[in-house]
Structures are given as structure tokens and as C-alpha cells.
């Protein structure tokens, strides 16, 4: 009798299951987006990462050239894994005004705004974009999943909250030729979209919502379509963009562009309140550059009292700043010092910017450093040189964000490159 046969049946089942393909799910990411067949066909690097449980490309063919596709042509990026909620009903506006920092009453149908929301202690739970599709129907897009929080917050409001992440596929089309591609694809009237406008267009027997938004600081659009129409939308854009240099890209290239635009990422540049384990990692809106969103005139919203109190008593402890660093070695995750001695913060994202021709970074600093004390700041970089790390202390200067500002992002009507 073999050793395997001698084992109890239950133990045999465990051994077999451990080697069956169905049980190897922990080695692979679990969910494909509706655009996966097209992305798989273009994948050259086999460079994947996990975006909220989805199999997403970090790069597809060359991360450097993918970045330059954003800045000189048009880049297509699958944003389907972005969490999407449909919020609708007679009280949708009142509910979202109670939930988020900005005044939703000022957001008109056919418009989008960037917003954030906090817990009752005034700490940021997430940031995202709010699309007002009609008077009573909204779409909230963000990084993290918040359905229990949203449902609890909706008690007492005549409103329904539905997660539609899997039902709605989405693409970001970014870069100088993005408008020309949409017009070539037959989306008549897309030239009327100003920055943060949205409109619905017919597509393949259904419709696609196109907004003039993006995460690159460039001319660009985001397209939302029912999942069953995803592939036909991709093919429509791909065919229209053939002569306009359309390329598919991964997150690495997008991350470089967003940093040049001075945009922050949840759980990268700040820790969201639901993920923070240590109390000193929590952040208020003013501490991560989102203070401009806070509308204290609109009435009560989550965290309002604490945020107002922190402002009036000047008890805010951190500030998120843009840095320009001497040299050309990126300072990602470098410690920031004052006078090369006192540790005052940490760099969360950094690159050598091809557009700005500067070594740039985002950093979270302890006040007053980066706020009223901005002189004599340094970053500590460890650079690999011929199989040896060398410690470099480089000067850092607090600078305004965005690091680059492209007129074509807001030009109306957009230029047809």
C-alpha cells in the first residue's frame, strides 16, 4: 500500500486540494476587469500588481515610454478597479452634503468635483471624485471600499447607496491627443466639455458617460460604460487613436504623471482613518493639503466641529508639502531633516521629473517645519553605487504644487494635437 493510500481520506483530500489549480488562488490575483482581454493581448512585461483584488498592470511594454505616451500622445489606462458607488434619491444632495467636505449644492448636474470625507474625529477616510449625473443621482469614485460607512451614514435620508464597481467599467484617456481621438471616434459634442464637465454619449446600443477629468495634470478624459459594452468601447478608441499615437499604460507611468501634477494617493501619501493602526498616523484635511475643500459655511458634516476647533486653536500637527531636492536621485521614502540633525518628516513619493526637469517629491512634515519653518531642510538618500549604498544628504526646498502646469489641461475648446 502506498503512503498516500494509507492516509485518512480527509488528509488525502487536503493533499490533493493543495496541488489543484483551484486552490492556488493565493498565488494569483483573483479578479479581471472587463478590459482584461485587450490588456492581456498587449502585455509584454508581465508586470502585474494587486489593485483592490484586481489584476492590474504596473507596466505593459516600457514604463519610461508609457510615461511619455501620457505627455506627448494619448495613454489609455484601465480604472475599472476604482471603487464606484451610485447614490440616488430625493435626499441624495443632502446626504452627500452631510457626508463630504465640499458644498454639494454648488455642484450642478453635468459637473464633477474632487472631494473627501472624514470620520467624526475629523480624520480623512478617503478622497475621491463626485459626479452629479442628474439632480438626484450621483456617482462617487474612490480608492477604498466604504459601503458599510455609507449605509450607516444614510440612515434618516431618503436615498439608496449601491456599489457598482463591477457593473461599470471605466477608462482614463489622457494626453494631448486625447480630445482628437474622442472626436475621431465619433463622440459628437465632446469639444464642449470644459474641465470637470461630464456628458452622456451614445455607444453600441447603450451609452457612455465621458467626463473631462483625470489623474495626470494633462488634457484628459474618463469614460464610464456598462461592463458588457467595455470591449467595444476599447476597440472604438483604439481604432480612432491609431494615427494619434494611442498607447495602453500601467500604473507606474500614471504615478509619475500624478506626482508631477502634485496629486496625492490614499494609503501612499497619507493613511486613511480606517487603515491607520497608530494614532499619530491619522490626518485631518488641512494636514494633507485638502483644507481648500472644507466648507464651514454649508452646515454640519462629519468632522466639522473638530476641524474647525483645530483651526481656531492652531493644533494641526502635520503639513503635506512639495519639495524640490538638489541633484537627480529620487528621494522616495527618504527621511527629512532640519539642519541635518532633527528628523521632521518623511517623503512619500519622489521622482526626477522629465517635464519639470527637477528632482521633486511629496513629503509629510511635522509643523512648524514645512509651514512657517521652511529653511535648512535636508533629505537623507541612500544611493546604490557599484554594489554599495552611499548615504547622501541633499538640500530640499519647499515649493508650490503642482510641479508642472499645462495650459492644455484646461483649454476650452481643447486643441486638436
From TrEMBL:
Keywords: Methyltransferase, Transferase. InterPro entries: GcvT/YgfZ/DmdA, GcvT/YgfZ_C, GcvT_C, GCVT_N, TrmE/GcvT-like. Residues 64-298 form the GCVT N-terminal domain. It comes from the Bacteria. GO terms for biological process: methylation. The lineage of its organism: Bacteria, Pseudomonadati, Pseudomonadota, Alphaproteobacteria, Hyphomicrobiales. Pfam families: GCV_T (PF01571), GCV_T_C (PF08669). This is Aminomethyltransferase.
Amino acid at each position: 500500500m502506498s503512503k498516500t493510500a494509507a492516509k485518512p481520506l480527509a488528509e488525502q483530500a487536503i493533499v490533493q486540494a493543495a496541488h489543484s489549480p483551484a486552490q492556488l488562488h493565493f498565488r494569483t490575483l483573483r479578479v479581471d476587469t472587463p478590459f482584461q482581454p485587450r490588456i492581456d493581448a498587449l502585455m509584454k512585461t508581465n508586470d502585474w500588481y494587486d489593485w483592490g483584488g484586481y489584476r492590474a498592470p504596473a507596466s505593459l511594454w516600457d514604463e519610461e515610454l508609457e510615461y511619455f505616451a501620457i505627455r506627448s500622445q494619448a495613454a489609455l489606462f484601465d480604472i475599472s478597479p476604482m471603487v464606484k458607488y451610485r447614490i440616488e434619491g430625493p435626499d441624495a444632495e443632502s446626504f452627500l452634503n452631510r457626508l463630504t467636505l465640499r458644498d454639494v449644492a454648488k455642484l450642478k448636474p453635468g459637473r464633477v468635483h474632487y472631494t473627501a470625507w472624514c470620520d467624526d474625529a475629523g480624520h480623512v477616510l478617503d478622497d475621491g471624485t463626485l459626479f452629479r449625473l442628474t439632480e438626484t443621482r450621483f456617482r462617487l469614485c474612490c480608492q477604498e471600499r466604504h459601503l458599510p460607512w455609507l449605509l450607516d451614514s444614510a440612515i434618516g435620508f431618503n436615498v439608496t447607496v449601491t456599489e457598482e464597481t463591477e457593473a461599470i467599467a471605466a477608462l482614463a484617456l489622457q494626453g494631448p491627443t486625447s480630445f482628437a481621438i474622442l472626436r475621431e471616434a465619433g463622440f459628437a459634442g465632446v469639444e464642449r466639455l470644459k474641465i470637470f464637465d461630464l456628458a452622456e454619449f451614445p455607444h453600441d446600443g447603450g451609452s457612455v458617460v465621458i467626463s473631462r477629468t483625470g489623474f495626470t495634470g494633462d488634457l484628459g478624459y474618463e469614460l464610464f460604460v456598462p461592463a458588457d459594452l467595455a470591449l467595444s468601447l476599447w476597440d472604438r478608441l483604439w481604432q480612432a487613436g491609431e494615427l494619434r499615437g494611442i498607447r495602453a499604460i500601467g500604473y507606474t507611468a500614471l504615478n509619475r504623471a500624478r506626482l508631477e501634477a502634485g496629486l496625492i494617493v490614499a494609503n501612499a501619501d497619507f493613511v486613511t482613518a480606517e487603515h491607520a493602526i497608530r494614532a499619530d498616523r491619522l490626518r485631518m484635511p488641512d494636514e494633507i493639503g485638502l483644507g481648500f475643500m472644507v466648507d464651514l459655511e454649508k452646515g454640519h458634516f462629519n468632522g466639522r466641529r473638530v476641524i474647525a476647533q483645530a483651526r481656531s486653536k492652531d493644533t494641526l500637527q502635520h503639513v503635506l508639502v512639495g519639495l524640490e531636492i538638489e541633484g537627480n536621485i529620487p528621494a522616495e521614502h527618504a527621511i527629512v531633516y532640519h539642519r541635518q540633525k532633527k528628523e521632521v518628516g518623511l517623503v512619500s513619493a519622489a521622482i526626477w521629473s522629465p517635464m519639470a526637469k527637477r528632482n521633486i517629491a511629496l513629503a509629510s512634515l511635522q509643523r512648524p517645519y514645512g509651514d512657517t519653518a521652511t529653511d535648512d531642510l535636508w533629505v537623507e538618500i541612500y544611493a546604490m553605487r557599484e554594489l554599495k549604498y552611499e548615504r547622501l544628504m541633499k538640500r530640499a526646498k519647499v515649493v508650490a504644487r503642482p510641479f508642472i502646469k499645462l495650459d492644455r489641461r484646461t483649454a476650452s475648446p481643447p486643441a486638436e494635437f
